[in-house]
Design brief:
- The chain has 315 residues and is of the alpha/beta class.
- It folds into 2 domains: 64 residues, Transferase, Pyrimidine Nucleoside Phosphorylase, Chain A, domain 3, CATH 1.20.970.10; 234 residues, Pyrimidine Nucleoside Phosphorylase, Chain A, domain 2, CATH 3.40.1030.
- Helices cover 45% and strands 10% of the residues.
- It has 15 helices and 7 strands.
- The chain has a 7-stranded mixed sheet with strand order 3-2-1-4-5-6-7, sandwiched between helices.
- The chain is globular.
- The N and C termini lie far apart (45 Å).
Length: 315
């Protein structure tokens, strides 16, 4: 089977390309994830979409296709679950996604973090988890065990959805990210009836528009923000804007304005970004020896409030 007909539609450049509808996008990615197309076609698809950009209907179809191939996970506790897709890692700043996850879990919130175990160019959240002595979940039962122990659960995308992990690895061949990376950051692997809130983060402002359209189109509950180097955690130095969506509608009361103006004080962050140093800093914060950065405290409070709202709506 070929996806040439789809590539012909999406591959005519930024101005000449046309969007796919949801069913077409789902069928296209079904074929890609099921390895029914050639490597050449996958490369053409990745480059065409990189140039054109994804519409909300295309993202909807891509996410539907991916969710159908995810490992079934246990139903979260009655209070719902916060989902932190972690795919960029640390390049210049310490990766504090694990700090956000641990802070939420200690307060009694179920947390699922998913992402790659390794990245040859960055420090992943998985590596920070391991430096903290937190095991990576390899089965659905181990996810449930982490929640029962009030620990955040981390699952490698290669375990959660092996076909998507393979598509993400195309980056190392062609040198560019592809729609799989956007899809990964949108994954919340439970039905809509399960109370959950995912952090959807972006690195470039133009993605905020397409992601906003997707969250509205799919009636999602999420916190949309500009990530710290692409990670789903607020910049410890300056809180970004938090745009909250509950069932696809922007919730003004739960959203947060960004911190503006000149910073008069910076948090005491570790100078190195390696996993061991980052883990030591996180442990010091969790022990109360160092303060939790205000931006991360505000994000955790915001997520807790959104999850409470989602849980109330599900009752």
């Amino acid at each position: 089977m070929s996806i040439a007909a789809y590539i012909k539609v999406i591959g005519r450049g930024k101005d000449g390309a046309r969007p796919l509808d949801t069913d077409q996008a789902r069928d296209l990615l079904d074929q890609v994830l099921d390895n029914k197309v050639t490597d050449l076609e996958i490369g053409a698809f990745a480059l065409a979409m990189r140039i054109k950009g994804e519409t909300e209907q295309e993202l909807d179809g891509f996410v539907q296709s991916t969710l159908a191939r995810c490992l079934p996970l246990p139903t979260p506790p009655a209070g719902g679950v916060v989902v932190l897709p972690s795919y960029n890692g640390a390049r210049k700043l310490p990766n504090l996604t694990a700090l956000l996850a641990c802070h939420l879990a200690r307060a009694g919130t179920a947390v699922l973090v998913h992402g790659p175990a390794k990245d040859p160019t960055r420090v992943t959240t998985a590596e920070v988890f391991q430096a903290l002595g937190l095991p990576l979940a390899t089965t659905a039962d181990e996810v449930a065990q982490a929640w029962q122990a009030q620990r955040p659960a981390f699952i490698d995308i290669a375990t959660l959805c092996p076909p998507l992990a393979k598509l993400l690895d195309v980056r190392w061949t062609i040198g560019l990210r592809n729609p799989g990376h956007t899809v990964a950051k949108l994954l919340s692997p439970w039905p809509a009836a399960v109370p959950s809130v995912r952090v959807v983060n972006h690195t470039h402002p133009e993605y905020a528009h397409s992601l906003t359209a997707y969250l509205g189109h799919t009636q999602a509950t999420a916190l949309l923000m500009r990530g710290t180097e692409g990670e789903p955690v607020a910049d410890a130095r300056r809180q970004p804007r938090f745009e909250v969506f509950v069932h696809g509608e922007r919730h003004a009361a739960l959203s947060r304005a960004p911190v503006e103006g000149v910073l008069t004080e910076l948090p005491a962050l570790p100078e190195s970004r390696d996993a061991t140093t980052t883990a030591a800093y996180i442990q010091a914060v969790l022990r109360g020896e160092l303060p939790l950065p205000n931006a991360i405290a505000t994000q955790a409070e915001c997520l807790t409030q959104v999850l409470r709202e989602a849980t109330k709506a599900a009752c």
